[in-house]
Amino acid sequence: MNAARLWPVAIVGVLAITVGANIYLFKEARDGNGAATEPDYYRKAVAWDSTMAQSRADVAMGWSLDAQAGPVGLGLGVVTCTLKDSTGAPLIGASVTLEAVHNLEAEHYVHAALAARLPGEYVSAPVLTRPGLWELRFTARRGTQVYTCVLHRDAEKAAPR
Fold it and tell me: Do 151 and 100 meet the contact criterion of CB atoms below 8 Å apart?
């Protein structure tokens, strides 16, 4: 092929690549999770001082919370947490709520109230909908005391039965 025939093919190739790249960028820009924002972010920003005060109160109370994300699928996907007081004893009689968001679905928050199962152990209904990394935001209340905790846990896919 001589040079006189090669340059029109090169121009058409460059234009085709440009059109393909623009189609790809348009598709990515329309992705719902591509520009996810924190729900009610303005109220949370205005309340930043009280959020930091709550964080200091959490440390002063000495409570601790640990959580496990159960396997996802087959009707599973529960979150189990253990709540302990400052002495390390199980914390009984707390009301625990959960706000969870998957790392890949930042627009879809899941809310659940956890039920007491054993002393200091609280479990949710099946709320985790897909395997992967989840941000779990807990709020525990007992009387006038409020404790908050944010954890990141990986939920695995349930093994087929």
Answer: no
